[in-house]
Amino acid sequence: MKSFVSIGSPLCLAVALFVFLGANAGYAAHSATARPAAGNQISFGPSHGTMVKTYKAFYDGHFDVYVNTDVSSKTQAKTFHINYAPVLAAAVPKSVSPEYFVIGRKAAGQRAIFGSEPPDPTYSPLWQEFLVKWKSGAKPVVLTSDNAVFNWAHKGKLTYTRTKVVINAPIIHVGK
After folding, report:
1. Would you call 161 helix, strand, or coil by DSSP?
2. pLDDT tens across 79-119, in order?
3. How many Cα atoms occupy the beta-carbon half-sphere of 87 within 13 Å?
């Protein structure tokens, strides 16, 4: 099931996600008021509520919760109703982490797989998409880490292919 959370600004996002992630409801709405800027601090202005879809992906055997906001693929932007941002593709390879998507045959319960998470120094909310495909005759299992992808590939049971697509999908909760 997809989840939703209410956001208005990055500061409001943090507050709303804290409230949302404390609950186990499928949908959450929370509108927080950002504190006014004092002295030399920046201000995001007044906040307002908006619903944003959240998803779960694997990282090292546990789930992380994330949102998709922008993608360098026009087709994916249209399909997933997110912003088309072709300039994201220019972030490769410096500012991206790998995200693995199993396509074709897959085990029940398979989700996307992150290659890093906060506070890892290699974490970036920008992900280069890799497509993972089980080879004919191999029995798919749920892959819960990039190490599992590498191990099964080394055994000759699956392949993974780097794409040119970069997606902005910040992890908003680790280990949910």
Report:
1. strand
2. 999 999 999 999 988 889 999 999 999 999 999 999 999 99
3. 1
Name the one residue in this structure whose structure tokens are 């990055």: 10
End-to-end CA distance of the chain: 14
Element (H, E) at 19: helix 10-22
Contact 19, 4 (CB under 8 A): no
Q: How many CB atoms within 10 Å of residue 154?
A: 9
Q: Say how far apart CA 59 and CA 174 lie, in whole Å.
A: 9
Q: Give residue 7's identity as a one-letter amino acid code.
A: I
Q: What is the DSSP letter of 18?
A: H
Residue spans per domain, the chain: 68-170
User: Average pLDDT by consecutive 10-residue portion of the chain (176 residues)?
Assistant: 42 37 36 59 88 95 98 98 96 90 98 97 96 98 98 98 97 92
Q: Give the torsion through C-alpha atoms of 164, 52, 119, 36, to 10 deg.
A: 130
Q: Read off the amino acid at residue 149.
A: V
